[in-house]
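User: Reviewer 2 asked us to show a designed sequence for the structure in our supplementary figure. I'm pasting the C-alpha coordinates here. Could you produce the per-position amino acids so we can include them in the response letter?
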Protein backbone atom coordinates (compact mmCIF):
# COMPACT_ATOMS: atom_id res chain seq x y z
CA UNK A 1 0.00 0.00 0.00
CA UNK A 2 2.80 2.41 0.91
CA UNK A 3 4.54 1.77 -2.43
CA UNK A 4 1.27 2.49 -4.29
CA UNK A 5 0.77 5.78 -2.42
CA UNK A 6 4.33 6.90 -3.16
CA UNK A 7 3.97 5.99 -6.83
CA UNK A 8 0.68 7.93 -7.09
CA UNK A 9 2.26 11.00 -5.43
CA UNK A 10 5.18 10.83 -7.86
CA UNK A 11 2.86 10.44 -10.86
CA UNK A 12 0.72 13.34 -9.61
CA UNK A 13 3.85 15.50 -9.33
CA UNK A 14 4.87 14.60 -12.90
CA UNK A 15 1.37 15.45 -14.10
CA UNK A 16 1.45 18.79 -12.29
CA UNK A 17 4.79 19.76 -13.86
CA UNK A 18 3.50 18.92 -17.34
CA UNK A 19 0.23 20.76 -16.64
CA UNK A 20 2.01 23.91 -15.45
CA UNK A 21 4.39 23.91 -18.40
CA UNK A 22 1.41 23.73 -20.79
CA UNK A 23 -0.28 26.63 -18.98
CA UNK A 24 2.72 28.92 -19.15
CA UNK A 25 2.31 31.73 -21.66
CA UNK A 26 -1.04 30.49 -22.96
CA UNK A 27 -4.72 31.27 -22.63
CA UNK A 28 -5.59 28.02 -20.83
CA UNK A 29 -6.71 29.80 -17.66
CA UNK A 30 -9.37 31.65 -19.71
CA UNK A 31 -11.15 28.30 -19.89
CA UNK A 32 -12.21 28.88 -16.26
CA UNK A 33 -14.72 31.42 -17.54
CA UNK A 34 -16.76 28.96 -19.60
CA UNK A 35 -19.11 26.21 -18.46
CA UNK A 36 -18.60 22.86 -20.12
CA UNK A 37 -20.94 20.25 -18.58
CA UNK A 38 -23.31 20.88 -15.68
CA UNK A 39 -21.43 23.23 -13.34
CA UNK A 40 -17.98 22.17 -14.51
CA UNK A 41 -15.78 24.76 -16.20
CA UNK A 42 -14.07 23.96 -19.47
CA UNK A 43 -10.74 24.21 -17.63
CA UNK A 44 -11.76 21.76 -14.90
CA UNK A 45 -13.10 19.38 -17.56
CA UNK A 46 -9.90 19.58 -19.62
CA UNK A 47 -7.66 19.07 -16.59
CA UNK A 48 -9.77 16.08 -15.54
CA UNK A 49 -9.55 14.54 -19.02
CA UNK A 50 -5.78 15.11 -19.05
CA UNK A 51 -5.31 13.74 -15.52
CA UNK A 52 -7.41 10.62 -15.96
CA UNK A 53 -5.97 9.94 -19.42
CA UNK A 54 -2.52 10.15 -17.86
CA UNK A 55 -3.51 7.83 -14.98
CA UNK A 56 -4.91 5.23 -17.41
CA UNK A 57 -1.79 5.53 -19.58
CA UNK A 58 0.36 4.86 -16.50
CA UNK A 59 -1.68 1.70 -15.81
CA UNK A 60 -1.19 0.64 -19.43
CA UNK A 61 2.53 1.44 -19.40
CA UNK A 62 3.26 -1.50 -21.70
CA UNK A 63 1.48 0.37 -24.54
CA UNK A 64 4.14 3.09 -24.55
CA UNK A 65 1.99 6.22 -24.48
CA UNK A 66 3.77 9.51 -25.11
CA UNK A 67 2.72 11.09 -21.83
CA UNK A 68 3.71 14.71 -22.49
CA UNK A 69 1.81 14.75 -25.78
CA UNK A 70 -1.12 12.90 -24.21
CA UNK A 71 -1.42 15.48 -21.42
CA UNK A 72 -0.96 18.53 -23.66
CA UNK A 73 -3.43 17.23 -26.25
CA UNK A 74 -5.97 16.44 -23.54
CA UNK A 75 -5.53 19.86 -21.89
CA UNK A 76 -6.12 21.54 -25.25
CA UNK A 77 -8.89 19.33 -26.60
CA UNK A 78 -11.57 21.91 -25.69
CA UNK A 79 -9.43 25.03 -26.14
CA UNK A 80 -12.14 26.81 -28.16
CA UNK A 81 -12.33 29.78 -25.71
CA UNK A 82 -15.97 30.84 -26.05
CA UNK A 83 -19.25 30.18 -24.26
CA UNK A 84 -21.10 27.91 -26.63
CA UNK A 85 -24.32 28.28 -24.58
CA UNK A 86 -24.83 32.01 -25.32
CA UNK A 87 -25.44 34.07 -28.47
CA UNK A 88 -23.68 35.05 -30.63
CA UNK A 89 -21.50 32.00 -29.95
CA UNK A 90 -24.55 29.74 -29.48
CA UNK A 91 -23.68 26.80 -31.62
CA UNK A 92 -26.29 24.18 -32.37
CA UNK A 93 -23.55 22.12 -33.97
CA UNK A 94 -20.94 22.86 -31.30
CA UNK A 95 -20.14 19.15 -30.97
CA UNK A 96 -19.11 19.06 -34.61
CA UNK A 97 -17.35 22.43 -34.85
CA UNK A 98 -15.46 22.98 -31.59
CA UNK A 99 -12.56 20.56 -32.26
CA UNK A 100 -11.44 22.72 -35.18
CA UNK A 101 -11.84 25.93 -33.14
CA UNK A 102 -9.80 24.33 -30.32
CA UNK A 103 -7.12 23.23 -32.77
CA UNK A 104 -6.93 26.70 -34.35
CA UNK A 105 -6.47 28.32 -30.91
CA UNK A 106 -3.93 25.71 -29.84
CA UNK A 107 -1.91 26.21 -33.02
CA UNK A 108 -1.87 29.96 -32.34
CA UNK A 109 -0.45 29.45 -28.83
CA UNK A 110 1.65 26.28 -29.08
CA UNK A 111 3.95 24.38 -31.37
CA UNK A 112 1.99 21.10 -31.60
CA UNK A 113 3.09 17.60 -32.49
CA UNK A 114 1.04 15.45 -34.87
CA UNK A 115 -0.22 13.45 -31.87
CA UNK A 116 -1.40 16.60 -30.05
CA UNK A 117 -3.16 17.86 -33.18
CA UNK A 118 -4.89 14.51 -33.62
CA UNK A 119 -5.97 14.39 -29.96
CA UNK A 120 -7.59 17.82 -30.30
CA UNK A 121 -9.13 17.29 -33.73
CA UNK A 122 -10.47 13.75 -33.19
CA UNK A 123 -11.68 13.77 -29.58
CA UNK A 124 -15.34 13.97 -30.64
CA UNK A 125 -15.26 10.73 -32.65
CA UNK A 126 -17.69 9.20 -33.66
CA UNK A 127 -19.61 12.51 -33.86
CA UNK A 128 -16.87 13.77 -36.14
CA UNK A 129 -16.53 11.01 -38.68
CA UNK A 130 -12.75 10.63 -39.00
CA UNK A 131 -11.40 8.28 -36.30
CA UNK A 132 -8.36 9.04 -34.13
CA UNK A 133 -5.03 8.01 -35.64
CA UNK A 134 -2.93 7.59 -32.48
CA UNK A 135 -3.43 5.57 -29.28
CA UNK A 136 -3.16 8.81 -27.28
CA UNK A 137 -6.08 10.22 -29.29
CA UNK A 138 -8.18 7.11 -28.71
CA UNK A 139 -7.53 7.23 -24.98
CA UNK A 140 -8.43 10.92 -24.68
CA UNK A 141 -11.57 10.34 -26.77
CA UNK A 142 -12.73 7.61 -24.36
CA UNK A 143 -11.80 9.45 -21.15
CA UNK A 144 -13.47 12.63 -22.47
CA UNK A 145 -16.77 10.74 -22.84
CA UNK A 146 -16.51 9.29 -19.33
CA UNK A 147 -15.67 12.67 -17.76
CA UNK A 148 -18.49 14.36 -19.71
CA UNK A 149 -21.09 11.92 -18.42
CA UNK A 150 -19.76 12.23 -14.86
CA UNK A 151 -19.79 16.04 -14.98
CA UNK A 152 -23.28 16.16 -16.41
CA UNK A 153 -24.66 13.77 -13.79
CA UNK A 154 -22.74 15.05 -10.75
CA UNK A 155 -23.35 18.27 -8.84
CA UNK A 156 -19.92 18.13 -7.19
CA UNK A 157 -17.59 16.90 -9.90
CA UNK A 158 -13.94 16.53 -8.87
CA UNK A 159 -14.21 18.08 -5.38
CA UNK A 160 -12.37 15.13 -3.84
CA UNK A 161 -9.53 14.97 -6.33
CA UNK A 162 -6.58 16.82 -4.83
CA UNK A 163 -4.56 17.15 -8.05
CA UNK A 164 -7.41 18.66 -10.01
CA UNK A 165 -8.58 20.82 -7.10
CA UNK A 166 -5.05 22.03 -6.44
CA UNK A 167 -5.16 23.93 -9.71
CA UNK A 168 -7.74 26.44 -8.36
CA UNK A 169 -10.33 25.55 -10.91
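Assistant: Here is a per-position design you can include in the supplement:
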Amino acid sequence: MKHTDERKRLEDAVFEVLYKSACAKSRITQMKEYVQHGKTSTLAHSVAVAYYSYRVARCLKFMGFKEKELIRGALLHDYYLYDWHCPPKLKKLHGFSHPQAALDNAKADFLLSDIEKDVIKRHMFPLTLVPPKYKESVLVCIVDKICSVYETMSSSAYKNNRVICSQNL
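For the response letter, you might also mention the following. Residues 2-165 form a domain with the Hypothetical protein af1432 fold (CATH 1.10.3210). The longest strand covers residues 35-37.
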